[in-house]
Amino acid sequence: MAKNYFNKRNVDFLLYEVHEAETLTQHARYADHNKETFDMTIDAATQIADNLMFPFVKDVDKNQPELKDGKVTVHPAIKDYLKALGESGLIGADFDYENGGAQMPVTVTSILGYILMSANNGMMFTGLTAGAARLIASFGSQELKDTYIPNMISGKWQGTMCLTEPQAGSSLSDITSTAEPLEDGTYKIRGQKVFISAGDHDATDNVIHLFIGRIKGAPLGTKGISLFVIPKYRIDGTDNDVTSMGIYHKLGQKGVPAMHLGFGDKNDDCIGYLVGEPNKGLNYMFQMMNEARIGVGITGASIASAAYYAALEYAKERPQSRRLNQKHALDAPQIQIIQHPDVKRMLLFQKAVVEGSLSLLLETSKYFDLSEASDDPEEKEKAHLMLELLTPIAKTFPCEYGMKAISDAVQCFGGYGFTEDFPVEQYYRDIRITPIYEGTTGIQSQDLLGRKVPMAGGKATMLLAQEVGKTVMAALQYDELKRYALSLKEEGERLQKVTMHLLGIAGTGDVERFLSDATLYMEMFSLNVVAWQWLKQAVVAKQKLIVSSDNADDVEFYESKIHTMKYFFHYEIPKTQGLATRLMDEEVLTIMTEKEVVM
Amino acid sequence: MAKNYFNKRNVDFLLYEVHEAETLTQHARYADHNKETFDMTIDAATQIADNLMFPFVKDVDKNQPELKDGKVTVHPAIKDYLKALGESGLIGADFDYENGGAQMPVTVTSILGYILMSANNGMMFTGLTAGAARLIASFGSQELKDTYIPNMISGKWQGTMCLTEPQAGSSLSDITSTAEPLEDGTYKIRGQKVFISAGDHDATDNVIHLFIGRIKGAPLGTKGISLFVIPKYRIDGTDNDVTSMGIYHKLGQKGVPAMHLGFGDKNDDCIGYLVGEPNKGLNYMFQMMNEARIGVGITGASIASAAYYAALEYAKERPQSRRLNQKHALDAPQIQIIQHPDVKRMLLFQKAVVEGSLSLLLETSKYFDLSEASDDPEEKEKAHLMLELLTPIAKTFPCEYGMKAISDAVQCFGGYGFTEDFPVEQYYRDIRITPIYEGTTGIQSQDLLGRKVPMAGGKATMLLAQEVGKTVMAALQYDELKRYALSLKEEGERLQKVTMHLLGIAGTGDVERFLSDATLYMEMFSLNVVAWQWLKQAVVAKQKLIVSSDNADDVEFYESKIHTMKYFFHYEIPKTQGLATRLMDEEVLTIMTEKEVVM
């Protein structure tokens, strides 16, 4: 079993040295906080992760929840960790004081999520609860808040998000669940939802569903969707007619039950409580989507992190063969496989993906915090635009590249990686859902190119270019970084050219063609943004090396950061060439024509 | 459950129209064969695949073999299919008549393997048996042949390859199993082997291990390795002291038991029979390696094939959302997801990988046949060089790109792809071992760049360039193909430039640096070779369209071939740009230096 799943030194570097989380405490919302409160919270999460989560990685995977006689039983360890997280105030740490939170910046709670999820992503119950409670906190009546939030963020009640329906999938405009107004202001709910994570289980006393449906007579499409709170048990303890109709057996993340739920299916007696105004449900959902998507990005980065540290540990210990220049020295001892260039390359890739993703997630989280907490309207607007632009990337890159990174982790283990004797085969399975749920990569990519890039007249991309420009300027100060600064600048120009080309197509009104290769555009854009994060890290490492050159551990740490930045520019960035070629290419091959190509 | 796992029309196209398998029957070895005997054999395999294999895909995965009281029990369906394949003469169909085979060309038996493996890759027992029996047929004494081959190719006895040891992994020079000569000419064997596929089970009466070890006093390294036959039960029925010490629980291919075996572990009474001469064992193995590696390539292509047809079927049936240009037509019916460009792109990728891989595998198999059967020494030498050059690619591309293709198949299914309700999650697991066993991708890549490209003064690459040139010339005849012909020519030049650059490094004697990015070189080389295979298919499709323009099914089929060729050139080939950039790049980042970068 691997011993590590994250690196505390790296967390400190990213949180404090690169993204300067302490500066957030200048804002009134976070004024009670300082590095000590952040560290205490991180330590509390680490304790729980080390003691109550990481030891159960395999066990939770092996004993997946089952549905029997209408009841879902999950691994008993889940109850313990929910209790511990709730008691430590970690589930709603970033909630407002008035809702029982600690007003912790999301920049810090993203790190909590990273630590917990890399310890055991099969125990991802609390993120779901927090997301659901946050919807109530943001848009619910005081009564709904008082009734539900305290029991949710204390870990006593589970929260869920009930969006997907069997016939609609990602197409939320096609959902058909109905809500019929009752005289007392509540609604009678009928419908079915699928893939509801943590949709039912026995580790909490109640399950609170945040549910979208149509009030009878509502307009077609997304403008007729309303949001409801639907508890499994009503407050008086009576059953609210939410039925567990099925449980999915899945490739990974087996600890978390994914449910097929029926509402009003048994006795036509399922009551829902409207959140906010009618027909605004999807609007509310969208306002919560950035956090949910950042959360999935963190999941991807976390699973890849656990796999990377397992592979790194193995590669440092496992002897095999000799250096390629010394193949024939048969009596020489075998070397550790990390010394083989091909293995080293795969480890550098994993490190580049994990640490680059985490840096991007913190960058995005910090814009989230500033968009919430800044008093300066200009800074607030900028933060909001950057958050909107970066969110689909922060959701997608850690998951898509995380999958590749974990595949390389498996490869580092050779045949052993394919066996259950080592943990990576599980991580390989677990991460596969992340580019699907909370908006597939295809949907994130359409969001990036179709909405985020053009929004506000392209202002967000301009702001991003300015930020990248600052990092380029800083990097140009150091001889060793100069070529990478220039490379990043050049990559920005290449991306700009592709963007202009695509917006030209959008200008013709052919949306389908404009967006047809959005997924490739996403990859190109992501590589740019992550290269920026790596150069940013390298600049800080350079600065620190000047002052910390007497601490051998620090020197090693910072030099490794610069080395990994170089890896990213020399091995990953060249991929943008081919992507740009395709994206500028006029040949249309994937759009349905009158004369359809049969496959 | 999916209904299809391969496409017969495509098999006919590749086998007869593109690779002209019938021309092989001009050679004496295959003189008894013709299209009818090929078709009959393919039909026989299809019957078995349809009736005895495909129906058990999930069941074999769910009921993986267990080791209890020293015995391994496999799924009962395995015994039935072994019997059926053995009785139909399909296990050793390509063996010489004198060894009980039908002297079927490997070009045809590769198709048999493809059909069987895409039906159910968890039943891959016979390929292992054939490989082991082939070693005996090629290098064993008449007595060994008579004793073992008939029972093996009739499916009564299982064959295995026992190479890997726990302390050595891929480094065969470090194996330590020993063989002590006994007075009767046999050897007393001691040692342990790991990851032995089909290493023990109850679906056959005996298990025949082809085993490498060192005769006492043999030289160090690979030059001291000898090959032995070690039966589980001796011919007189007594136990030969081969112990099942452990069974691996694996990510995929769960139907096939992977064993940890002890030889002479119980009573120091394990007898081995030397194959051929002492110390030539690895040599013998190497001479069989091309077939084994082609076999793994077929496995990769087969699993990807099964996943592709499942995804294609789903994408044609599943309605979701509307066309991007008609997003707001809310009362319009939903469209089938194959009509979404992003889904179509993923399906084209899968098709391009599956059919491109299969074409490459047939090309390689045909060179195998010609290297065996040609009477013309020049043709024979050419075939041998082409076989040597293409084999590492034919092993690697179908597995590496097959993994990506299956990941896209999962994505086409959305959330359902992650569940056990559909077959793709299993294929996603099953294929993950293929870039590891029978020589990892790293090792194949070093073989390609380090041995195959420079061999015979670069003659093989020259021959390949000639063959590609022929396809380019043929394609230039058609207006629609012209730009792709020119593109392939240009890609060949790009590859040539990179190769020269790398050989320049080899010339300095720095082998480690020469080979440090061999895996990237493999990807670039593979993309070239598969683009060639696609252009070759497109040329044939063009030719056929001229004569078959009145058959609507044929027209659709051939046009889809040309369309997929275009996909490959427009979406996959641009990747070579970034690969070339990296491969020409002087910056060394993965080679151990005195001042090691700590990770």
TrEMBL record, chains A, B:
Gene3D superfamilies, sorted: Acyl-CoA dehydrogenase/oxidase, N-terminal domain, Butyryl-CoA Dehydrogenase, subunit A, domain 2, Butyryl-CoA Dehydrogenase, subunit A, domain 3
Superkingdom of the organism of origin: Bacteria
Keywords: FAD, Flavoprotein, Oxidoreductase
Record-annotated Acetyl-CoA dehydrogenase-like C-terminal domain positions: 465-586
Cofactor: FAD
GO molecular function: flavin adenine dinucleotide binding; oxidoreductase activity, acting on the CH-CH group of donors
Acyl-CoA dehydrogenase/oxidase C-terminal domain sequence ranges: 279-446
Protein name (database record): Acyl-CoA dehydrogenase
Source organism per UniProt: Emticicia aquatilis
Organism ancestry: Bacteria, Pseudomonadati, Bacteroidota, Cytophagia, Cytophagales
